[in-house]
Amino acid sequence: MPLDKMGRAILAQLGRDARTSWQALGRQVHLTGQAVATRVQQMVDDGTIRRFTVVRGDLQRYFVTVFMDTPRFDAFEAFLQAHADVESASKIAGEGCYHVVLACADPAGLEAFTGAMQHYGRYKVASEMRRVKD
C-alpha cells in the first residue's frame, strides 16, 4: 500500500525518535494519539513497519556476502534465523546470494559464525570502521 503524506510524516518522526508517545507524535503530525496508534498499527499489519528494535552501538558489525555452494536455501535461512548475532539478512541479486549483517561483541563471534556456515558455501567479510548514518 503506498504511503500518503501523513504516513510519511509519522514514519519520519518515528525514525527520529521511536520512543516518543503516540500523543506527542500526534501533536507533531496534527492527529490525536489514538489516530497515530491506529495508523502505526496499520503500517505494522501491512508490512511497512517490519519491527521495532534497538541498534546497539557497542557491537562490532561485519558485512558478510554469502556465495551458496548448495541449493539448501531453506536450511541456510533457518540457520540465519537461529543465529543470535545475525542482525539482518537479505537474499540478494548481483554479487553473492545473501547479504548478512553480523553484530558481535568480539571477533570470536565472527569466527564462530563463519565456521558454522562453511558447509553452505563461501563468503567474504567486510568490517564496519565507523557508522556514518543510522
Structure description:
The chain is of the alpha+beta class. The protein folds into two domains: 5-45, Orthogonal Bundle (Arc Repressor Mutant, subunit A); 60-127, Lrp/AsnC effector binding domain/regulation of amino acid metabolism (RAM) domain (Alpha-Beta Plaits, 2-Layer Sandwich). 40% of the residues lie in helices and 22% in strands. It has helices at residues 5-16, 22-29, 33-45, 73-82, 107-117, and strands at 60-68, 86-91, 98-104, 121-127. Strands 2-3-1-4 form a four-stranded antiparallel sheet, with helices on one face. Helix 1 packs across helix 2 and helix 2 crosses helix 3 (33-45).
Give the secondary structure arrangement, pairings included.
Layout: H1 5-16, H2 22-29, H3 33-45, E1 60-68, H4 73-82, E2 86-91, E3 98-104, H5 107-117, E4 121-127
Antiparallel strand pairs: 1-3, 1-4, 2-3
Helix pairs in contact: 1-2, 2-3
Largest sheet: 4 strands, antiparallel
Discrete helix count: 5
- The overall pLDDT, averaged over residues, is 92
Q: How do the strands of the widest beta sheet line up side by side?
A: 2-3-1-4
Overall CATH architecture of the largest domain: 2-Layer Sandwich
Q: What name goes with the CATH superfamily of the largest domain?
A: Lrp/AsnC effector binding domain/regulation of amino acid metabolism (RAM) domain
Beta-strand content bin: 15-25%
Question: Stretches where pLDDT falls below 50 for ≥5 residues?
Answer: none
* CATH fold topology of the largest domain: Alpha-Beta Plaits
Total discrete domains: 2
User: SSE order, as H and E?
Assistant: HHHEHEEHE
